[in-house]
TrEMBL record:
Ranges of residues in domain OmpR/PhoB-type: 122-218
Residues within the DNA-binding region(s): 122-218
InterPro entries to which the protein is assigned, alphabetical: CheY-like_superfamily, OmpR/PhoB-type_DNA-bd, Sig_transdc_resp-reg_C-effctor, Sig_transdc_resp-reg_receiver, WalR-like, WH-like_DNA-bd_sf
Keyword field: DNA-binding, Phosphoprotein, Transcription, Transcription regulation, Two-component regulatory system
List of residues that carry 4-aspartylphosphate: D48
Biological source species: Paenibacillus puldeungensis
Protein name, entry field: Response regulator transcription factor
CDD domains, sorted: REC_OmpR (cd17574), trans_reg_C (cd00383)
Amino acid sequence: MLIIEDDESILFGLTVALRKNGFIPVACSSIAEGKETFTGEIALILLDWNLPDGTGYEFCRYVKEKRDVPVIFLTVRDDEQDIVQGLDMGADDYIIKPFQLSVLLSRINAVLRRTKALDMDQTVLHCGKITVDKQKAIAWLDGQALCLTACEYRLLTVFLENKNQTLTRSQLLDKLWDADGNFVNDNTLTVTVKRLREKLDNPSCLKTIRGIGYRMEDAP
């Protein structure tokens, strides 16, 4: 979660509170710093409106042009026109300062639930430098198309569709059972994971959960 806030006390308080509630916050105090930090791993942005090098409106427009990441404005600006402007340009919520932490956490979870539900229908999946377009059946690593076997592609898609969830070997074997009835055994799964890792340049986001299975997870 990316936080862009120029008030040091608010930034520190939000960072500590969010970490205590199970989130992985990344703190920034300017638009320039936010642009350097914004990556495919960011799942939500908490954004102040008034920043030293521009406005939250400008940064919101910048990130929305890159991908539809959820944005929640945190600002003292309570003018109706500002609220309408922020929501109309794609912000997912608008919270006026001062606010209660419990309310903020509730709003964050509500936005994440909505976006997660929408993600289930998305045809383009991301994790770090890895992208899969299910409609085109193409995978990329850092913008370069990957040459994957059918089994490797299905495995990568399963990992991305279940990102941040541990999948047991049994679950993966069930999901990889070919539509034509071709059986994928335990040894095939091990070899496929190994070859997929190599083609993805051994990404740190693909974790082996010893004795259980695997997990594709966003980097902190």
